[in-house]
Amino acid sequence: MTENASPRAVAARLSGTVRIVGAGLLGASIGHGLRRKGIDVVLTDASPAQLRLAIDYGAGREAAEGDNPVLVVVAVPPDVTADVIEAELRAFPDAVVTDVASVKLRPLTTLRERGVDLTHYIGSHPLAGRERGGAISARADIFVGRPWVVCRDEETPANDLALVEMLALELEAMPVEMSPEEHDRSVALVSHVPQLVASLLASRFADVDEGLLRLAGQGVRDTTRIAASAPELWVQILGANAGPVAEILDALATDLAQVSQALRAPEAPGARRTVAETIARGNDGVSRLPGKHGQFRQFEKVVVMVDDTSGQLGRLFGDLGELNINVEDLRLEHSPGAQFGLAEISVVPSIVGRAREDLQARGWQIASMND
């Protein structure tokens, strides 16, 4: 039995039954999170095998006649989201219906064109996920600390809005109110275009000699990590949000053309400035990304060499705790063939000097001073 299969008795804000339509990664993860709070969760899925697997892992029970949910969560692929929302609104007219699709305007427009009563529908989207999908990859904690967009309008009943926001809070996510248009423009920039850029870059590796790829370090792995995502799902997502994505890609193509032109003639007047300003602009953009707890803070790095033997990483964390060094973020890197790894520890700037000195005093080798 997995950890998710045993709900913990924790005080819940939601009461009543929550119905989840779609027992894949997001649907099953929501089920696990709510079950840990003792909430009654019923599941349904078009795939009997997927449904059975999610139930076996403890994400909820199978939906049955007589279920009277207070909240319905639609977690199905984008191309059928509007159809399922419409069906659930008709089947459970007293329930609040939300969905967790990654595009918000297209389903809403489709439902309005059909004349569906949307009084009790509120679109939402948790900015969380994993590269691998399906019920077997579901986890109760993937929403912790992540934004959960809630798309309300002036006609949204206050109690309905509160119910969807309580769903996010139960899963320890952070509710953020946005319009569907704002949401789709935002995810185009921070999610959909990065997926395409990662995939385009990773595709360059497909036909090159494997010997060249032995030089790959953590930077290229970080840049292409999301390229392992499922093509079938992304075809639907990108098709549903094509306009905002295309606008950003056009602007990116212009930037790439300028840099490419500068590199074709690096000695030409202004060429080096173009490259330098491109890198500097990237620095500015990265500095604006929120970090831990959504804070806009920059941290210093302490890079520690860790032997690739059992217990070494645990010893490092033990020393960090005893030295009262709070780890704001952590990244591990392994070089091919090396018998050690690099632990890149992010700390607040005010303690970086002490952290390096104290760790060295305990026998740790600092691989980079980052000065």
| Largest β sheet strand count, sense and barrel closure | 8 strands, mixed
Q: N-to-C SSE series?
A: EHEHEEHEHEEHEHHHHHHEHEEHE
Strand content: 15-25%
Report the radius of gyration as a whole number of Å. 24 Å
Quick synopsis:
This protein has 371 residues and is of the alpha/beta class. It is built from 13 helices and twelve strands. The model is unreliable at 1-12 and 292-296 (pLDDT under 50).
Walk me through this protein's architecture.
The chain folds into three domains: 3-178, NAD(P)-binding Rossmann-like Domain (Rossmann fold); 186-287, 6-phosphogluconate dehydrogenase C-terminal like domain (6-phosphogluconate dehydrogenase C-terminal fold, Orthogonal Bundle), CATH 1.10.3660; 294-368, ACT domain (Alpha-Beta Plaits, 2-Layer Sandwich), CATH 3.30.70. It is 43% helix and 16% strand. The chain has helices at residues 25-36, 48-56, 81-91, 105-113, 158-170, 180-203, 210-213, 218-224, 231-240, 242-264, 271-287, 312-322, 352-361, and strands at residues 18-21, 41-44, 61-62, 71-74, 96-99, 121-126, 147-151, 174-177, 300-307, 329-334, 340-347, 365-368. The protein is of the alpha/beta class and 371 residues long. GO terms for molecular function: NAD+ binding; prephenate dehydrogenase (NAD+) activity; prephenate dehydrogenase (NADP+) activity. One of its GO terms (biological process) is tyrosine biosynthetic process.
Give short descriptive properties of this protein:
Prephen_DH, 8-stranded mixed sheet, 6-PGluconate_DH-like_C_sf, disordered N terminus, 6-phosphogluconate dehydrogenase C-terminal fold, 371 residues, Rossmann fold, single chain, Alpha-Beta Plaits, EC 1.3.1.12, prephenate dehydrogenase (NADP+) activity
